[in-house]
UniProtKB/TrEMBL annotation:
Protein name: Serine/threonine-protein kinase RsbT
Organism lineage: Bacteria, Pseudomonadati, Bacteroidota, Cytophagia, Cytophagales
Enzyme Commission designation: 2.7.3.-
Keywords: Kinase, Transferase
Organism: Adhaeribacter pallidiroseus
A GO term for molecular function: kinase activity
C-alpha cells in the first residue's frame, strides 16, 4: 500500500525562496537519514530546478512529501509552475537546440590516476 504525507509547501517568488527551498531540502534529507553527500545532491537539485522556475517563469511552488511504499520511506520534492511553456520544445526534443551561453551544458573529464 502506498501512502503520501505532505510535509511543507513553499512558494517560489524570489531568490530568498530558492535559498529557503535549499535549506529545507537539506533539513528534510537529514531527518530522513541521508548521508551528507546525499543531502547536498538532493538540495542542490531542488534549488537548481527552483532557480529555473524563477528565471524562466517567475513564480512556482515546491511541495515536500514523505511517501511510504511497501515499507520503504521516500522523500519527494514536487516543483511546479504555471508558466508560458517552452516555445521551442520540438527543437529541444529533436536535440537541435544550441544555447548561446554554456547554460545547460555539463562537461565531465575522466582521468586515470
Amino acid at each position: 500500500m502506498k501512502m503520501k504525507k505532505e510535509v511543507i509547501k513553499i512558494k517560489i517568488e524570489n531568490e530568498l525562496d530558492v535559498v529557503l527551498a535549499y535549506k529545507r531540502s537539506m533539513q528534510l534529507a537529514g531527518f530522513c537519514g541521508l548521508p551528507m553527500a546525499g543531502q547536498t545532491k538532493f538540495a542542490t537539485a531542488v534549488s537548481e530546478i527552483c532557480r529555473n522556475v524563477l528565471e524562466h517563469v517567475g513564480h512556482g511552488q515546491i511541495g515536500f512529501n514523505l511517501i511510504e511504499n511497501k515499507g520503504r520511506l521516500f522523500l519527494e520534492a514536487l516543483i511546479s509552475d504555471r508558466g508560458r511553456g517552452i516555445a521551442n520544445v520540438e527543437e529541444l526534443l529533436a536535440n537541435h537546440y544550441r544555447p548561446y551561453s554554456s547554460k545547460g551544458w555539463v562537461s565531465i573529464i575522466l582521468r586515470n590516476w
